[in-house]
Design a protein that fits this description.
One of its GO terms (cellular component) is cytosol. There is one protein chain. By secondary structure, the protein is an alpha/beta fold. 25% of the residues lie in helices and 26% in strands. The protein contains eight helices and 16 strands. The relative contact order is 0.15. Bound molecules: NADP nicotinamide-adenine-dinucleotide phosphate (NAP). NADP nicotinamide-adenine-dinucleotide phosphate (NAP) binds next to helix 1, helix 2, helix 3 and strand 10. The site of NADP nicotinamide-adenine-dinucleotide phosphate (NAP) has 31 residues, from helix 1, helix 2, helix 3 and strand 10.
């Protein structure tokens, strides 16, 4: 390790699963051991870590991890240490973004095959925002639907004023689909930037910052059927989960696909497979790792996203930047459903 790299660093460590307010669930430490370089990896000094809903599931234990661990799975900064890189693609001083574990920290050990160089003209914040939410939106609108939707056909995307689906709605339009979006009323401004053909605006659940999907089933189903001449939509992109799955199952067109990619309101309850018979429908529960499964796929997706951002056809908003030590506040923010764009932690 180079002598300028300290042996200890600041990090947010999950020592116990629990709520964001629990002192050991997101513990700010200033003497956590700096990871040591090993073959096939580089050491990145982070400027930012990206925040994602999945971080809250790791913290809570919904997606179990071995304790203790440094939270986070998205980062960006400068390469400060590297062993031989067989591809000769990277060197010390490069500004990179990446998705791998242990990013709420000053330094992260990153597998070389996960690194993406930040292109000229793009800020590190914007490039970083593309790594999880951007890539997720890209695979959702490009691959996860298994070509069961074609250009000019309707899809339904929930929460288009929020994180991932603000991107998904724009990308679905870029792919030539017609988009019905939903949003809570507080996020209408962001949702309108997503360029949906039709926008269904919902009141917030009582005392909350997210839409009252629980009491909006009839409103959404009726509106979707009106818009699609009673045919339903060929594809549904649903990151809300528990409170929207019934709506999704009722809005599908014949041989349509319900892509349930997230659980912002809680995990989807089990339902009988026979429910799918009515429309010969498809359901999938995908994850990013399976759609950026090798370097070629990762590069193809990220290069298309960067090109859209650079030519102005994809608009990315940074909602809030929190200090690393305020990770608990950032988790409370994301869990309250307030998110209107990318959230970052600053080192
Ligand atoms: N499978 C994958 O590959 C993958 C990748 C990325 C994310 N995800 C998952 O997808 C989900 C959404 O992620 P995201 O990045 O879009 O998150 P986000 O930016 O925080 O958006 C979540 C949105 O869901 C809506 N919502 C409805 N009920 C909610 C509730 N009870 N609590 C909080 N929000 C609620 C809110 O929008 P409204 O105001 O419109 O109601 C909220 O802004 C998460 O479960 C995440 O883990 C999965």
């Amino acid at each position: 390790m180079s002598s300028s790299i300290p042996s200890q660093m600041k990090a947010i460590v999950v020592r116990e699963n629990g709520p964001a307010t629990s002192p050991h669930a997101l513990h700010y430490e200033t003497d956590y051991p700096t990871p040591k370089l090993k073959p096939g990896f580089v050491l990145v000094q982070n400027k930012f870590s990206g925040l994602n809903f999945i971080d809250t599931y790791h913290r809570q234990g919904l997606y179990p991890r071995t304790l203790p661990f440094v939270c986070g799975q998205e980062g960006g900064g400068t390469i400060v240490d590297i062993e031989t890189d067989a591809s000769n693609e990277f060197s010390i001083g490069d500004t990179v973004v990446y998705s791998c574990f242990e990013t709420y920290a000053e330094y992260t050990l990153v597998p070389i095959e996960k690194l993406i160089k930040v292109p000229n003209g793009l800020s590190i914040e914007t490039a970083l925002a593309c790594m999880v939410q951007g890539l997720t939106a890209h695979y959702l609108v490009s691959s996860a639907h298994a070509n069961l939707i074609q250009k000019q056909e309707w899809c339904l995307i929930y929460s288009v004023g929020s994180g991932t689906c603000q991107w998904a709605a724009q990308m679905a339009k870029l792919r030539g689909c017609k988009v019905i979006g939903t949003t809570s009323s507080q996020k209408v401004q962001q949702a309108q930037l997503s360029n949906c053909d039709e926008l269904i605006v919902l009141q917030e659940a009582e005392g909350q910052s997210y839409a009252d999907y629980e009491h909006s089933h009839d409103k959404i189903i009726t509106r979707v059927m009106q818009i699609t001449n009673d045919q339903g939509v060929k594809c549904i992109i649903d990151g809300v989960g528990k409170s929207t799955s019934e709506i999704s199952l009722n809005c599908l067109a014949r041989r349509g696909i319900f892509i349930s990619f997230g659980n912002a309101s809680g995990p989807v309850e089990p339902f009988p497979l026979l429910r799918l018979t009515k429309k010969s429908a498809f359901v999938t529960r995908p994850k990013l790792l399976d759609y950026a499964s090798n370097r070629k796929e990762l590069l193809e997706r990220i290069e298309e996203i960067f090109a859209w951002v650079q030519d102005g056809s994809l608009k990315i908003g940074i909602d809030q930047v929190f200090d690393l030590k305020d990770a608990s506040l950032a988790h409370q923010y994301i869990e309250s459903g307030k998110t209107k764009g990318k959230l970052l932690l600053k080192m």
